[in-house]
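Predicting holo structure, adenosine monophosphate bound.
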Amino acid sequence: MSLLVVGSLAFDSIETPNGKVDDALGGSASFFSVVASFFTKPRLVGVVGQDFPPEHIQMFRAKGIDTSGLVTKEGKTFRWKGRYHQDMNSRDTLDVQLNVFGTFDPVLPKHFRDSRHVFLANSSPAIQAKVLDQVEKPEIVMADTMDLWINTEKKGLLELLPRLDGFLLNDSEALLLTGETNLVRAGHAVRKLGPKFVILKKGEHGAMLFSEAGVFVVPAYPTPHIVDPTGAGDSFAGGVLGSLAADSASSAADLKRAMAYGTVVASFTVEGFGLDRLGEITRKDLDARYQEYRKMLTF
Ligand code: AMP
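Done. Tokens:
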């Protein structure tokens, strides 16, 4: 059981119809590793600037996250600023300051190279491939992407896809990547590009899994308290791969259960700004909501 995540650590400034926050701890690797720490002891690789408070690193460590792959570089930490629309299903990126993340060249500490589960969080396909080259014998590799890489580094992305077990992307990205106009056709088409399974994230409309076993659909957990959707996708990924890593499992039934864990943990993330809500809950809360979600889906 050894789960590696490589991705961004950020200061997020977020505006939603429910309020705003400045310089909250965020980034794909932060959300993923905090969520995965409910299931296992994740290994974190990323880069931050000298402005990154030691308290954040202590928080990761207190959750059992191995931060020996976290590098502090001269300069500032990555900053992202976004504003959500009224329905909170879509957002505009108002500002991106790559800072030290712009020259991120991840080198895995030696003792991370035997990781069996790997999450390549959103970054350029070239960086994702470089990380994968350093892992000796991965069992399950999952990656995320964004429209930017589909538009600017499609060739690199297409080369990466056959190396993946799981590929996560949101609905509009799947349409963009395949040229399809229907999500189901797009899901199948993405799978034909190489990954063993594909998960299409649909925000408040849940997620769809395309695998050898066919199509599996999960609704979002219906939380009435949506405060800030930032990090829902990375949290979902942390729940999916965290549960697969904890059980060393990968059957069709395991994947379905992992989808449910991803859904439930993402529903907590959106109930607060940044990582706030995840910081309040325990594995017991997560399991209680998981059982409630299971009952909701039984008929
Ligand atoms: P999500 O809401 O799951 O899509 O993830 C949001 C997180 O992604 C935020 O915490 C941002 O800091 C981070 N993020 C935004 N843009 C980028 C980017 N270009 N590369 C890596 N991480 C990003």
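Residues 113 and 135 are 5 Å apart (CA to CA).
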